[in-house]
Each structure stands twice: as C-alpha cells, then as structure tokens.
Amino acid sequence: MSEGFTFTPENQKRFREILTAYPNRRAAMLPTLHLVLQQHGFIPPEAEPYVAELLEVPLVDVREVVSFYSLFIQERQGRHHLKVCCSLSCWLRGSDEVRAFLRENLGIPEGAVTEDGRFSWEAVPDCLGACELAPMAQVDERFEGFLTRERLEKLLQSLREETYPSQVEAD
Amino acid sequence: MPIVKLVSEFFGVEEARRLDWRLRHGGYEGARHALRDMTPEEVTEEVVRSNLRGLGGAGFPTGRKWMFVPKETTQPKYLAVNCDEAEPGTFKDRYIVEWDPHRLLEGIIICSYAVGIHQAYIYIRGEYVRPYHRLKRALEEAYAAGIFGGKVLGSDFSLEVHIHRGAGAYICGEETALLESLEGKKGWPRLKPPFPAVKGLFGCPTVINNVETLSHLPKIILNGGSWFSDLGVERNGGARLFALSGHVNRPGIYELPLGTPLRELIEEHGGGVWRGKRLKGVVPGGTSSGVLCADEIDVPLTFEALAEKGSMLGSGAVVVMDEDTCMVRALHNVEDFFAHESCGQCTPCREGTNWAYRILSRIVSGNGVPEDLDTLEHLASNMRGTSICALCEGARMPLQSFLTKFRDEFEYYIKNRRSMVSGRTPTTVST
Predict the structure, then answer these.
(1) 57-96 in A: which are within 8 Å (CB) of B?
(2) CATH architecture, range A80-160
(3) Is A9-68 in CATH node 3.30.1330?
(4) What is the ipTM of this complex?
(5) What is the pLDDT of residues B79-97, one digit of tens each?
C-alpha cells in the first residue's frame, strides 16, 4: 500500500481506548470504522486493510461490515449533507415538497455533490426517529424539523454563509 | 385516562440531565434501595409483579426474560441496552436519552444487579448524535461520581457500562442482530434457540432490554411492582410512552396508562386530526403493525386488544392519516422502507419485500395490472412465518391490512392509472 491509510497519533490513542471496552478486537469494528469516518469523512478503500490489520481479522470481515451499514459511506459527501427523512410520518406531512425544494435550490439530484463541494443531499426511506418534527431532515449532525419553504431557505442561507452549527457538542 | 409522568417526568427540563440536579430529584434512589435493601431475587420479583413488558415492540414480560438467564454460570453475563430506535413512527427512546439519561443509567444498574451482570453495552443508533453526546456526558458524570465502576453507589457491586454506536441499519434493533453488530459483524439475526439469555453476546448469557423498559425500573423499585401494575390493566402493567405523529394537531410524546383508548390518544391528547379533516386510518404500533380504519379506534391500547384486531401495539408509535391520504402511496412508502431494510438473509423477506415494493411502484406510477393485487396477496401469504426474524412479518402485516381494508383504492388506482384520492399520478416514485 503506497497510499495507505493510517490513524493520526491522536486517533491511534483513541483506538487503543476503544479496544479496552471489548473482550475481543473484532467487536471494536464499528467504533473503529466510526473513527475512520471522523478522520477522513468517508471510508476510503485503503482504510479497509488497515482496519483489518488493526483488528486482526480477514479483510472480507471489514468489507462485509462497511458494505452493510448505510452510515459507512464510501464516497466523499458535500461539506454539508442533508438527509431528508421520507418515512411515513414525514411523507404524510410533506417530505416530497422538501425533496423538490432541495432539488431545485441546490441544483443537483439526490446523491450528487455541488461543484463547489459545499452541498450534497439524499432522501432516505429509513425513519430518522424525529416524527414529531415532520417533515424533518438531518443536516450534518443536527435534526431540523417543520421544514417549510421559509425554514429551508433560511437553513440553506446559514449553510452557505457557514454560520450553521453543524457539529453537535455535549450540552 | 390522564397523562402520567413516570419516565417522562423531566422531559423538557434542561437541568435534568445534570447529575447533581438529578441526584437532588430522586436520581439513583431506586438503585440505591435495591443494592442496599434487596436481594437480586427480590428485585426480580418486584419486576415480575409489576407486569412490565418489553417496550421495544415485542412486549415480552421483562421479569420473566431475566429469569431465563442461568444463575450459576462460569461465563460473564451481559446486558445489551437496545437504543437502536428505528421503527418508523417511533421516537420515544430518543426523548429519554436526551432529557433524562440518568434514569436509563439507573435502570441499567437495577437490571444488572438483579441478573448478576457486571458489563453493559448501550447500543444507540448512529443517527442519534445529540442523544449520544448527552448520554455519553451523563455516563462520564456518573463515572466521575463513583456511581459506576468497582463500587456501584458505594456497594460491593461492580458494573461497567459502554456506549456502542450503530451505523445505520434498522435490522440491528432486532435483538440478535444487535448482538451480531456489537460483536463487530453485519446485523444478521440469529436463529433461536439458543436464546440470548443462555447464549447471547460473545456466546455468553445476555439480557437485551429496551431503553424505556429499563427506565421504568427505578420507580418500580421505589414504589413496588403492584403500584406499577395497578396503573394499567390486566397483564399490561403500568404506562408507556406513545409517540404520536402524522396528521394530528399535536404530534409528540404522551405517557399514558396501558388500556387508554386509541381514540382518546388521538382526539384528546393529540388534539384530533389536523386541519379539521376526518380520520382515514391509523398505524398503531409503528409501520410494522397492521393499519386500522377510522371506525376501529375505539380499542384499548393493550398488547392483546390490538393483536385481536390483527395489528399490534409494537413500539407504541401511532401514525395518523387523514381523509386525503392515498392509501396506495402510503403502503408504497411503508414497503419501500422494508425493502430497503431487509438484511437479505432469508429469501422470503429479501425477495418478498423487494417484489412487493416493485409491484407497488408500478401501480403508483400508473402501470399496474389487475393481477398485481393477487400477486401481492400471494406474496403476503408466503411471507408469513417463513423467516428468521420478525422484519418479514412486519412487512407483511401492513401489506395484508392495507390491501384488505382499502382494496377499492388499489383497484381504482390500477384501473384508472391515478389515485382515487388526489386524482393524480406522481411523476417520480423513487421513495
């Protein structure tokens, strides 16, 4: 691997801490892959043999997990990613309109990234667990609900101006 | 029946997730009482007496579940806390973890003490970022105060708790898939037996309990099992959180005694159907449950009463649909979810959910043929009892019930190539 993936020294330390929570190394698979996501933004192919080696498992075990779970994305998303919940409660209250708005206002189809790399979006059939806010979307790490056109316009504006609090901190 | 405040006591109270505040408001007193004054057997007896049932969806009696774990074993025992809340319509566990994480942590101590568990994992779905951070902080505060670790609340009981984040797979809420996922594998449910109580996480005896279930334990221990069971009706102890959403005026979480009529939840607590419209249908227990018609809502919210109606109480997620809802598109939406979330292990589920979804997509786009309904019926009958876990049955129940109860809408849509309700055919039907 000439272009190999490695954890930063800080993440190597975190990885060692993760291991202490489990009786065997393989069980650390999900948290280790979350750490890759955190460091790299997606799971690059070269991270898979690295993780396999760290966890002392065959490469296929890592491949199987990466390909199974939807959060282990394998391509870079926009700096801001909007995930529109289209499950029953959100659909009943207008997720179709949210999708139409994003398609029109971001100028890209679902799954695409804007040319400047700022935005990507997708519509997911899985329920995000915030039906009381319907229609809602996950914007970066946050849940945003009652998505009317006005709210969506404001939301996109704050994302464009980079004033949106994308990260969730313990509060 | 009036709203009760058991696990929802501190929802909306900003200070409640701080340990010092929580300790001044009854936090960890149930666990303290259990550790100091009761034997593990006595704790289990109280929980059996309470009639508390699993509130993740299956409704299995909690105390009995614990009793399946062998007392004498040389292996470690584990607790897996199921916070992989993902059944469409369900958002109650998120409220507990966001607003009152210490109640869950206290419940974990009580369960672990009763069963003799010293290692617990909280499996929280990956999309729950704020809940994760709040839970993590609460756990750190509890550790720093000596609540967890070698001497739980100053006793001789030891307990380590870890938080494990999921990564976007509905199936991992199925208890054995959750164990696989905790072990670092893809979430494929296991064949039972052996049951997790005997051979669960890392091959060891394991209890898997839902967040809300565990969160009821502190009050059950302090007030006694009979206090809890008296709140509900026979065989359905206590109260639970109902997650109300869809076309209602006041969507949200309502904590009500079991046995409360569904009509009361929708009309009184939820403020009725929005925009002054009439009710058309209700999904009473997450989208895995069978749909009820408007004239079927005078049913008490108990596990048995809904089962008798061919539906289920499930996770307590009630989704309301008004008169303008196209039931063909609603079912298409529901089956899209199951087709997407089938793990692919069992053929009837993998093929059945996706086949049903493709047929429904064809109908919705105006290209259905009359035989499609027979094919869907046939599929539904072949999806019953033919798979390892309940996901397939969860896809079958809405399929069968929508087709039976709103058949005229499906026939109309196929014949006229448009919705009976909206008069339209959507241009894109990808989701």
Answers:
(1) 57, 61, 64-65, 68-72, 86-89, 91-93, 96
(2) 3-Layer(aba) Sandwich (3.40)
(3) no
(4) 0.97
(5) 999 999 999 999 999 999 9
